[in-house]
Specification:
This protein is of the alpha/beta class. It contains twelve helices and four strands; from the N terminus they run H-H-H-H-H-H-H-H-E-H-E-H-E-H-H-E. The protein is elongated, with a radius of gyration of 27 Å.
Length: 250
């Protein structure tokens, strides 16, 4: 018993000496301890939420489609030309099994068909054909998390608004225009905004009409404007930023 007590006392002294030499500045170790304490009190959904595209556990097909649609805005937002995959001419000249074109489409995968739809020609302002993406599904599916992660992955500053909170069409229009036309200047890196409208199914009909006017009406006015100067003024109000809408009931 005496030998055991002596051995334990020696181990205690060794451990105390090692910890004292590893942490000569106890004041600097207070911050990580505070962070650990704050981490213990946060919700698990916040602590383990995905922060990168590779950490997403949602449907990979949906993730890829949303990311591909968001990358179609690169020409307008970032001034980048999208690298569109072109099939080899030899493959087009020799279709498999010498089948007609209608039967060839049956053999294409769901991903290939969706990519062909998304890679449709851009409009005159280099914007994609579909200006708004809609994510729908039951609560807890990860729709908001998916929108945030993919927007950050594509290089955007996320601006989120709740459609059910802003019941007034005037406030709804003001917030949409502010998010899609103004730049983020608070952060160190000025990134373009990507607007995420949550609970779009709770918005009144007047607010939905405001959103539709922002998407479509400006195009019609820009096409109908006569003269280059007038057209340039019209283009100032065009929707030049992506909008992602989220709802539970499509």
């Amino acid at each position: 018993r005496r030998h055991v007590l002596q051995a334990s006392q020696q181990l205690t002294e060794i451990i105390n000496s090692e910890t004292s030499t590893e942490s000569p500045q106890p004041s600097g170790d207070a911050e990580p301890a505070d962070e650990e304490e704050s981490g213990l009190h946060c919700l698990w959904v916040d602590k383990f939420t995905p922060r990168r595209y590779t950490e997403l556990l949602s449907d990979d097909y949906t993730n890829r489609c949303l990311l591909k649609w968001l990358k179609l805005w690169d020409t307008v937002v970032f001034g980048k030309e999208n690298a569109v995959k072109k099939s080899k001419p030899g493959a087009e000249a020799r279709p498999p099994f010498n089948q007609p074109k209608e039967q060839q489409n049956k053999w294409k995968t769901k991903v290939q068909l969706t990519e062909e739809i998304l890679e449709a020609e851009l409009d005159q302002h280099k914007r994609p054909k579909y200006k708004v993406a809609l994510l729908c599904g039951p609560p807890g599916l990860g729709k908001t998390t998916l929108a945030h992660v993919i927007a950050k992955h594509a290089g955007y500053n996320v601006v989120e608004m709740n459609a059910s909170d802003d019941r007034s069409p005037e406030v709804f229009k003001t917030r949409i225009e502010a998010a899609t036309q103004m730049k983020s200047v608070l952060g160190a890196n000025e990134k373009p905004n990507c607007l995420i409208i949550d609970e779009i199914d709770g918005a009144p009909t007047a607010s939905i009409n405001v959103l539709l006017n922002i998407i479509h009406q400006k195009d019609a006015e820009g096409d109908a404007a006569a003269g280059a100067g007038r057209r340039r003024r019209r283009e100032g109000g065009l929707l030049l930023r992506p909008i992602i809408c989220i709802c539970n009931d499509q």
